[in-house]
Specification:
two-stranded antiparallel sheet, Lysozyme, mainly alpha, 6 helices
Amino acid sequence: MRLVPARCATRALATAVATVALLGGLGAATPAGADPSQDADATVSTLRADADQAAAEYFDALGKTQALDTQIAEIEARLPRLTARQRVLQGRTEDRAVAAYKRSGDQLGAIIASGSVLTAARRTVWLDRLNQHDNDAFEELVRVTTRLETQHQQLRDARATQAVALAQVEARGRDIDAKLQAAEDRSRQLAAQAAQTAQPARPVSPKGTGSAPPVAPPDYQPTPGTHPQHDDPFLTCTRAHEGSYTSYNPAGPYMGAYQFLQSTWNGAANHAGRSDLVGVPPNTASEYDQDDVAWALYQWRGAGPWGGRCV
């Protein structure tokens, strides 16, 4: 799912790999008698709530940015047409003035010969009214264009302010997303240790560096079967525009049938209560799981995360 202006509206929450210090802090020794698994679970629960709030704030900011972009685009499309119309009206008035001037000599001689001063006066009044009509239309176009240009600048200023707000939300989201991933990993590691299994801790999913596509974590259990909403018109349309379930575009990287960024996938999975999918690269998830996260995000935020398409 592309949240940038290229194919879907704008930029998603960027994901950061948890730092060594963060992982060390989550894995620090606990007081005697304390249950590290419970502590880890409490940390995960808190961070899940924070991540959900950060994602909601991000999508709200993204929606405002997309609305401003739409308004700016509409005005930018109208301004050239208004300017062209101004040129047409101005040229028409000038052409009439030149034609009237050229005819004035012949008309003056005919009027003097015929003595029809009234006819000349009527022609002059008619020409003045016609030119005045075009002049009025021209002046109205100038007023409309001026208003639009002012509004355009105001919207651009608002867009710049909104971009700052969006960047601030993204920064908060990056921090929370990294901590959430690290806390999820720590929780699974402690659970594995408690069960005395040889299963390694779930690694943090690789981030987009333009290299090879990431692989699924070793403990990922794909959900089999077909999702109940697989054939929903919105999901079907979005897949037709975005890609296949195994698609991987290193530009984001954008992954899977719905071209998720990893952080957007994590936020949607977290909101849907699918913490088992946090950190799973979308293009490695089963069709059911990809449909499930996409459907959850669509129910939560509508078509906005995909730029408002397919509605």
